[in-house]
Fold this protein.
Amino acid sequence: MNNILETKGLYHDFDGLQVLFDVNLQIREGECHAVIGPNGAGKTTLFNVITGTYKPSKGQVFFKGREITGMQPCDLCRLGIGRSFQITTTFSRLTTFQNLRMGILSKKGVRFNFFKRVDKMEEITRETDDLLRRINLMGERNFPVSALSYGKHRALEISLAMSTDPDLVLLDEFAAGMSRDETHNAVELIKKMTEGKTVVLIEHDMDVVFSLADRITVLHRGQILAVGTPQEIRQNQEVKDAYLGDLEVNAAC
Ligand SMILES: Nc1ncnc2c1ncn2[C@@H]1O[C@H](COP(=O)(O)OP(=O)(O)O)[C@@H](O)[C@H]1O
Ligand SMILES: [Mg+2]
């Protein structure tokens, strides 16, 4: 099976603080792959190195067989990689519609004089409204984003990551801070929006991981501890000792 995304011998440090050690991540085309691990394991840093926010101190990143190490996030977006962030990143004074429209425009690499083409603008409006309908946010189309509930706000962010129609989407802790209902809705939204796409998600909520992921990579202290199906990861003693055991203890408290 083809790997759509691959990292080879990836290292990263922050002023000498070594955060990633020889990370060889392999993501197969079309799968939903979860990256799990304790806080501080290096998961977000790994995403940041993959998506060009940081240049790795050593190693390479490949997307569809092409080296993309250190490429700018906007160029990666045009190649077909979308991402959402652990923190909220929408423009809070703009409306839901305006935020999504920006995502759609960014894929097309549009410059400002583009707005003079009325027919083009109508096409973008139609595309944005179609997306709003698919994600059940038409009722909030003209709300400033700051007026959205937390769950709807995060749903908008997932949709923003998808608005550029990427082949590969990276989602960083999309369910963090969501209620049970909001999490359930977000999982359904992701299933609907990412059909036929490759998804890599960082997630702490094991219910979410086990309901979405085809395969899991466990990151521990900047290194890959295990890779496998949810079933294999659940039964892996090293993973239980390093991570899942802790979660079970926490859940019981
Ligand atoms: N910008 C940064 N500058 C310095 N240290 C950082 C920075 N970002 C993350 N770190 C450190 O790198 C380690 C991994 O962080 P992170 O990738 O955010 O972990 P995770 O997402 O798995 O919780 C942590 O020790 C964190 O404090
Ligand atoms: Mg993180």
About this structure: The first strand starts at residue 3 and ends at 14. The chain has one domain: 3-252. The chain is about 40% helix and 25% strand.
